[in-house]
Design goal:
It comes from Gallionella capsiferriformans (strain ES-2). One of its GO terms (molecular function) is monoatomic cation transmembrane transporter activity. It is built from 12 helices and 7 strands. By secondary structure, it is an alpha/beta fold. The chain has 3 domains: 213 residues, Alpha-lytic protease prodomain-like (Up-down Bundle), CATH 1.20.1510; 74 residues, Alpha-Beta Plaits (2-Layer Sandwich), CATH 3.30.70; 75 residues, 2-Layer Sandwich (Alpha-Beta Plaits). It has a 4-stranded mixed sheet, with helices on one face. Strand 1 and strand 2 form a beta hairpin.
């Protein structure tokens, strides 16, 4: 049973963010990052060229990749925050995941390219040049700018709880680390170890490819529906079991959806309660998980028994067939004129037969119950038949 509220949206509303605060914060922080990375790309690439620093130019290409990734983040943030629609009933959160995958693959390829380029230049040590002090000044400036950007973006990401913004913030921290490597490489070059500038460029390439590979693998694991960690799954399990009316739980499954998760669960309830009460318990369980965990939606399936251990009921006859069999054995008036409830349990059927008040006297009710007991003893289909009347339950 899936308890899910559906809302219709106009075309205009479809482009409005589902989480306005998160959307606005992501837009602002990303634009700040775009401006900074644009300036750093120009300073580092141009400055590295004139300062004869391969490491600084490599870091400039890293900043360029950041600029491109920021544009990708803007796109993903806009489309990932759109409301659910007919074609995307679970929303568009996976757009963020796809963007993270693309970003990771791009960074990995860029890092490998920089590493190969540095290795090829190291094959010709005589062509290496000394780096001018201008390169060192630009590298220090880039280091301070990227560290400051990391702290700002991480604070925003934690406040709005965005996985993609957290990834982008730590990407900025990796940029700061690469800029630190560049600073060390340039200082070594200026001290006479000219090859250290290219070594720094190679290290930057390794760092970029490592970060890209990590982002790509994390995004890929989500796209193939990797579940939440064991600790969070256990916490959700306890929340469901603590719900009043839930007697047991099995088939608890989770899968990540960007910063949220989707949960499926089978809960065990008393098999003799009404459908509406079972639905009520499912609603209680669903809202308990939604209120206590960072979950997008919960699908709760109600089980009257543990179907992992009980016999299968799908092979049993439907209600019209069961009524026909009872009518043949007990008489049509008994079945047609009274209320009959079937309980499909453990591969058999329990029957509750409610007689109209005053229809039969006490002796007749006991006689009917005796006929039912004989029917049950000779049947592999019916497990029990209980006759209810104003005289009580006629059990022998």
């Amino acid at each position: 049973m899936k308890n899910h509220t559906h809302h219709s949206h106009t075309e205009k509303e479809a482009f409005e963010p589902a989480h306005p605060e998160r959307y606005a914060a992501a837009q602002k922080s990303t634009w700040v990052s775009i401006v900074i990375n644009l300036l750093l790309t120009l300073f580092q690439v141009v400055g590295g060229f004139f300062a004869h620093s391969q490491a600084l130019m490599a870091d400039g290409l890293h900043s360029l990749s950041d600029l491109l990734s920021d544009v990708l983040v803007l796109y993903a943030n806009r489309h990932g925050n759109r409301h659910a629609d007919a074609n995307h009933p679970y929303g568009h959160a996976r757009v963020e995941t796809a963007a993270t995958l693309i970003l990771g693959v791009f960074l990995a390829a860029l890092g490998v390219g920089l590493l190969v380029a540095a290795a090829m230049r190291l094959q010709h040590p005589s062509a290496l040049q000394a780096v001018s002090p201008l390169g060192l000044a630009i590298a220090v400036f880039a280091l301070l700018a990227k560290e400051g950007m990391f702290r700002y973006m991480l604070a925003v990401a934690m406040r709005v709880r965005s996985q993609m913004l957290v990834a982008n913030a730590w990407h900025a921290r990796s940029d700061a680390a690469s800029s630190l490597v560049v600073v060390v490489g340039i200082i070594g070059n200026m001290l006479g170890y000219t090859f250290l500038d290219l070594v720094a460029a190679a290290v930057v390439g390794v760092m970029i490819s490592h970060m890209g590979g990590k982002l790509a693998l994390e995004a890929l694991s989500e796209l193939i529906d990797t579940g939440l960690d064991a600790e969070e799954v256990e916490a959700i399990r306890q929340t469901l079991l603590n719900t009043h009316g839930v007697l047991g739980l099995h088939d608890l499954r989770t899968r990540k959806m960007a910063d949220n998760a989707l949960v499926d669960a089978h809960i065990l309830v008393d098999p003799k309660i009404s459908v509406s009460e079972g639905h009520y318990i499912a609603e209680l369980a669903r809202h308990a998980v939604l209120n206590s965990h960072h979950v997008l939606d919960v699908m709760v399936h109600i089980d009257p028994e543990d179907d992992m251990q009980a016999g299968h009921n799908a092979k049993l006859p439907s209600r019209p067939v069961l009524l026909e069999q009872l009518a043949e054995q007990l008489g049509k008036p008994v079945v047609q004129d009274n209320r009959v409830i079937f309980h499909y349990l453990d591969g058999q059927v329990d029957v509750e037969l409610y007689l109209t008040a005053g229809e039969l006297n006490e002796e007749q009710v006991k006689s009917l119950q005796a006929r039912c007991d004989v029917l049950v003893n000779g049947s592999s289909l019916f497990r029990a038949i209980h006759v209810h009347s104003n005289h009580g339950v006629a059990r022998q």
